[in-house]
Amino acid sequence: MIRPISLATLATVLALSTAAHAQAPAAPPVADAPPPLVDLYSDEDAQAALDARLLALKTVIRLTPEQEKLWTPLEAALRQASKDAGERAAARVKATAAGSFLDVLERLADAEASRAQDLKTIVAAARPLVAALNVEQQRRIPAFLGMTDQAGQPQPTLELWIFEAEQE
What we know:
Elements: H1 7-23, H2 43-61, H3 65-68, H4 71-94, H5 101-132, H6 135-145
Helix pairs in contact: 4-5
Keywords: Signal
InterPro entries: LTXXQ (IPR012899)
Pfam family, one: LTXXQ
């Protein structure tokens, strides 16, 4: 028969195991250690992924030659938004530690305002192209961008691959 563990017992066990783990000496670095199985995501990797996504989006939409002429401004806006996201992420890494929760909220607000401006630029660039697309072409775009339909709930901007660089 299994006896239920009290919350106090569980908390004590977790506290002791955490303390023991924290006191364990770190393994010394090995000079000839093999490279990691998965390398960190480099700037070149991010650029290649963006190029692939843009090509895939263009392929999914199946642009006609007339619609193709309207693609360039949208592609430029998407590339700029992705670049801006990377710059925000790099700035966040270099930033000094937040002094209070108000600093965190202010930084969050600044990032959201920047993403909002990027989205407005994308929307403005997309309007002429989307107006030229048929219903079937338009239907393919939201899911490809990472948009979700959650019964009228707001779409979190960080779920869009455009802002992938800002995700941790």
